[in-house]
Amino acid sequence: MKTPYENIVNTNHIASFVSRENIADILALAQREHIAPASQDVKRSLLLAIDVQNDFMEGIGSLGVAGSKGDVRRLTKWMYHNLKSLTGVICSLDCHSMMQIFHPVWWLDEEGKHPAPFTIISYHDVVNGVWTVANGETGRSLEYLRNLEFEGKKQLCIWPYHCLEGTSGAKLESEFTKMLYFHAAARNAKPKLVYKGQNPYTEMYGIIKAEYDEEHFVNHTVLNAIRAYDAIFIAGEASSHCVLASVEQILEHYATDRSITSRITVLEDCMSPITGFENSTRQRFEELKDTYGIQIRKSTEVAI
């Protein structure tokens, strides 16, 4: 590589609003590399980067994940060292409005107050009047809670306002963005940005589908893209929620096709869990490894 990593990514500015992308400068550097375009790759490799967004960055995000700065540093270094053989990148981005079922403004207690972040709201809480729906859409909200419990999904958790459309928190982290577009220009490979979580009546942790929605939306575009790659690498935030749900949904879809599930490698040092979910997250990924044959590796151990 002609361009040093440090000329692309300033590690001191990761998870800092001081950072500016200066994309024109990044593209000029990339165009000096004269690397074969990704379309010529014989072995096709994909990075699936889950929610590498400001609001999930420690120190600046409304839902900052401890360890996320180091995750971005290691992920961008891995992208740099494997740039000549990394074919494509798909990035998921949480994208929400203020009025969504998992935000405080949706709910009121018996005193007319909104719930604090991280409050758990159950179907029976609403039936018994512990919580009421502020916008009057009680039927739709109860349907969601009932189906969450019936299907054994996560409980409804009230999250801090995060990744609101048009805010700086919804943006991709800037130093990651620099490496993303350096790769795009150097390999002539347009990154794919996949927005998720815009349905106000449901949570959507994973990139493929919501926890429950009455339309039963499935992102077949991403699933079909995965099928087209020989190796799939997954990283991002948070490992306990959006990364884990994305991996589970992909594996569920391809459960009977070991030839695809065995192509997946989770970069364990390029993702971190929400505090309190460390052990359960580690255990669940080990179960997925045993069941589906995925690999769980450190980025320093993986070369494409």
TrEMBL record:
Taxonomic superkingdom: Bacteria
Keyword field: Hydrolase
Family to which the UniProt record says this protein belongs: Belongs to the isochorismatase family.
Cross-referenced PANTHER family: LD05707P (PTHR11080:SF2), PYRAZINAMIDASE/NICOTINAMIDASE (PTHR11080)
Protein name: Nicotinamidase/pyrazinamidase
Lineage, uppermost ranks: Bacteria, Pseudomonadati, Bacteroidota, Sphingobacteriia, Sphingobacteriales
